[in-house]
Design goal:
Structural class: mainly alpha
Distance between the termini: 30 Å
Order of helices and strands: HHHH
Shape: extended
Radius of gyration: 19 Å
Length: 94
């Protein structure tokens, strides 16, 4: 049997979501002072492939799994592709 729509619960959920978005909008990264080329697609693939090793290292050392600053969308795409290659992509989804 379906429960009736609870307006108070929906209002609380909407307010919580609004609060989370407001706090996230205030997040700030340090301004990069880069003199070398930013990592792009190829480095994203490499870093995505090495993500499990980087994760284990980040548990014990102060290191990042993800390059900052990076080249933006192409680095992100490469990171996802590299992780997908390692973990089998969508072949195990079904």
């Amino acid at each position: 049997m379906l429960k009736s729509f609870d307006r108070k619960g929906a209002l609380r959920g909407a307010m919580l979501l609004l609060l989370a978005l407001s706090v996230a909008a205030c997040a700030n990264q340090p301004a990069p002072e880069v003199t070398h080329p930013l990592p792009g697609l190829l480095w994203g693939v490499v870093h995505g492939f090495l993500a499990p090793i980087s994760f284990i290292g980040s548990l014990f050392l102060d290191m990042r799994m993800y390059a900052f600053p990076n080249d933006g969308l192409w680095y992100d795409f490469g990171f996802v592709v590299g992780s997908g290659i390692l973990f089998g992509g969508g072949s195990r989804a079904v």
